[in-house]
Amino acid sequence: MQHPEDPQFSILIKKTLASIWKYLLPYRGRFVLSLLLGMVSAAFNGFMLIGFQLIFSLVLKGKTRTLGEGTDLPLVGEINLAKMFNLDADAPIGLTGVMIACSFIPVLIFFRGFFGYLSAYMQAWVTSKVAYQMRNDAFQCVMRQSPAFFNSAKTGELMQTVTSQTAVVQRNAMQIIQIVAQRPLTIISILVVLFAQDWLFTLMSLVIFPACLLPIIRIGKKVRKSGAREEYDSRELMVAMQESFAGIRLVKAYAGEKHAEDRFERTNASMTRNMIRWAKAIEIVGPSVETIASLGIAAGLVYAWDRGLEAENFFIMVMALTQIYPPVKELSRVQMMLHKTTVAAGMVFELLERTPDIQDAPNAVDIGRSRGEITFQNTALYYRESNGEKKDLPAVTDINLHLEPGKFYALVGRSGAGKSTLFSLLLRFYDPDQGSVLLDGRDVKSISQKSLRGNIGIVNQDTFLFHDTIRENIRYSCTDATEEQIIAAAKKAHAHEFIVQISNGYDAVVGEGGCNLSGGQKQRIAIARAVLRNAPILLLDEAYSALDTESEKIVQDAIHTLSAGKTVVAIAHRLSTILEADQIIVMDQGRIVDRGPHAELLTRNAIYQNLYNLQYSADERRDA
Ligand SMILES: Nc1ncnc2c1ncn2[C@@H]1O[C@H](COP(=O)(O)OP(=O)(O)OP(=O)(O)O)[C@@H](O)[C@H]1O
């Protein structure tokens, strides 16, 4: 993301506008209509002034005036009402005439407001639709990214981009469109009337006025970057909040409240500073323009006295001048707003343009229900550094493994040996740098991600539960499951017993991340989810690590039921849970170093013996 100081920023502005235009295209009909309505409303300003002048000249000379006396209007020329309506030229205008004339004032104002309202509504409609589409696309784009993206992205930043930045684009884009499309026309229409009224006076105003605006433009330039920085700060603020809330237990456990508060306060202070600078720049424009306007009026009055102008003519000119200032004021803000919008839109489009690292091949197939046969062929994976460069050492390498359907496999090895990486490769969270991963003899890259992952059930060490009821948390793996199926799954997972005991049972809300439940209970809900999914492959990642011995026994029984007839691959640090595995695969430094049943490995493999001895001496110490 380029910074506002970057010389390439103007290129970015053009690119941003082009990208916004793409979003506007589907609504171009309404968009053009809104512009046309805005133009009508803008041009109506000039028409209204001419109307006012006719009304003023009729009313202010009312008593002495007769209908046959003509009124000289700018652009239109002389208007003689007696001639126009075929009336008696000597008839005085009278109170009725004055009242009729005056009643046109609200009519003119109403029409100006009406056109303005219609165009503003249309623009709000179009920009809201654009923002709606952008938010949807941004969220979908984030959801389609691979886990590698989430390893480097900050959740708070993503949330800020999807919600707030799209809102900034919507709000500012609407204002900018309105201003750019309408205000010049408003100014021109008023100027035409002014020139027709008194060209010399108008010319003088035109020369003096921009000169007076120069200092304002200068101030604007100085602080417009603050608007852009404010967008960066608001993103930082979201990150600070999101991380503090998500990690609240850690924050509390390490008494990190002060650190979190300081981080938030620093960003908040910077954002506030930039907001104030921004407000200073925006708000100085109004009073300055008004002061200049009052100078213009004072000078104009002197000029009117000198030229012997009639009161109603002077009145119209003052009115025209005061009407010309607000659009000029708004136009002078466009540059600042454009910068702010570009930064916000840049963040959104950067996200939207991101191609996911993992995508379905164009001819990716749905394999239906898999047999559960998994093969790793000479597979290797190197994770990436934060700059995108490959790490020097592979996370796994030379992996050649054939897992037969319906058997129970265990992956063991020291921490960092590469066990979870094999799961990630099978789930196609990452594509291997060498070799391939096959499911039922077919490269997982040729299978659609939905079909591939639909064949795999997972029970993790960190069970994630949504802030929802127990029922909905179980149903997550199979959204159309019936109540009976959910209860049956919970029974198989040995979760039903505790669910019916807690108040509200299946309707109990589990709290943020399942904080109202114990580790073992969360685990059993996760197993119920996996039961409901009934996938032919089951991956167990440290499924017992959060449990005490009693819960471990219950969960083990549940997993035993769940595993029947499935290909099960379990990562286990607690060897007691995998002693019965058909085959235990020993990993070390990213390689498979041995494989076989427990009894064989115990006699021949030093790493396995070591793990086993460490485990059992720890268990004995714990039991003692
Ligand atoms: N997302 C990642 N980005 C970069 N490196 C990673 C990532 N995930 C794992 N690694 C590294 O890859 C190697 C293998 O990690 P992996 O998680 O597969 O090991 P593991 O055997 O499952 O470990 P543990 O038993 O501790 O979970 C480790 O050196 C680890 O630091």
Task: Describe the structure concisely for a colleague.
This protein has helices spanning 9-24, 28-60, 81-84, 94-143, 147-152, 155-197, 199-246, 248-253, 257-307, 311-352, 419-426, 449-454, 470-475, 483-492, 496-501, 519-533, 549-563, 598-604, 606-623; strands spanning 71-73, 77-79, 374-381, 396-403, 408-413, 434-439, 442-443, 456-459, 537-541, 567-571, 583-588, 591-596. The chain is an alpha/beta fold. Strands 8-9-10-5-11-12 form a six-stranded mixed beta sheet, sandwiched between helices. A four-stranded antiparallel beta sheet has the order 4-3-6-7, covered by helices on one side. Strands 1-2 form a two-stranded antiparallel ribbon.
Give a verbal description of the structure.
With 624 residues, the chain is an alpha/beta fold. The protein has 2 domains: 16-352, ABC transporter transmembrane region fold (Up-down Bundle), CATH 1.20.1560; 409-418 and 449-623, P-loop containing nucleotide triphosphate hydrolases (Rossmann fold). It has helices at residues 9-24, 28-60, 81-84, 94-143, 147-152, 155-197, 199-246, 248-253, 257-307, 311-352, 419-426, 449-454, 470-475, 483-492, 496-501, 519-533, 549-563, 598-604, 606-623; strands at residues 71-73, 77-79, 374-381, 396-403, 408-413, 434-439, 442-443, 456-459, 537-541, 567-571, 583-588, 591-596. A 6-stranded mixed β-sheet has the order 8-9-10-5-11-12, with helices on both faces. α4 (94-143) runs antiparallel to α6 and α18 (598-604) crosses α19 (606-623). The protein is elongated and about 125 Å long. It starts with 8 loop residues before the first helix and ends with a helix. The mean pLDDT is 83. The structure holds adenosine-5'-triphosphate (ATP). The site of adenosine-5'-triphosphate (ATP) has 11 residues, from α11. The site of adenosine-5'-triphosphate has 11 residues, from α11.
